[in-house]
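#help-structures
NK: newbie question, is this the right format to request a structure? protein is SPFH domain-containing protein
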Amino acid sequence: MEEQLLDLVSRNIALIVLAFVIFLAVSSAVRIVPQSEKFVVERFGRLRAVLGPGINFIVPFLDRVAHKISVLERQLPTNRQDAITADNVLVQVETSVFYRIIEPEKTVYRIRDIDAAIATTVAGIVRSEIGTMELDQVQSNRASLIERIRGSLANVVDDWGIEVTRAEILDVNLDDATRAAMLQQLNAERARRAQVTEAEGKRRAVELAADGDLYAAEQQAKAKRVLAEAEAFATNAIAGAIRDGGLEAAQYQVAMRQVEVLAEVGKGQGKQTIILPASAVEAMGDAFKLFRGAKP
């Protein structure tokens, strides 16, 4: 049995070798690329093609996959670099950059260490941009600064086949001396604002008090004017009545008013001595005469 098997193998050895060679050729010709990667194919050491996701075919024994590049977004480690602002303040800036490879052939053949190259470029751009701004502008216009850094970085790394998706400034740190000076300045500014607010409050209180006094004076003047107008109206009415023949009525009213006043004076407690002027007695006599219909 063994001799027959060996005889069969010896007769078909060529077919077996041919089948093995065909299997190797097919397996090396077919390349399945994942969705998150791209394959760089070389032929005799030169760039032949870039394979995208899916099933791809290459020439067996001539072409080879030299590089497998991930196209997922990457994040550089947080980097810190010193920079000097336009007003000569030393700051330490923490940056973080996100990028992804869009042209693997450029990334492979034009740059050796892409992460180090991007980190060095970011450090230079950050120093250059911060050098044109004062410290207050760096703190208040961080979004604008980030956009400028991203734009400058995108122009530089375009030749490397990558796309900068995001550039962030995580923090801007100051040395102890600068921080203490800024804190002192902040406290002084707060004290100044408090004094200004207090002064404005006092001025507003004085203005409101003056407005209140002015309003009260205006109201009193209006009241006096109304009373004066009423008295003038009453005087004119009395004058008209007297002019129309009401002299007796006027004398009667005056006499009755004098009688009422004397009655009020006599209501006091204890013994009282009332001195009546001669005119008062005459006025009462005239009043009784008028009451009886006789002229004085």
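mod (FA): yep, format's fine, and the tokens are attached above. Strands lie at 30-33, 37-43, 46-51, 54-57, 63-70, 74-75, 79-84, 90-101, 162-174.
NK: thank you!
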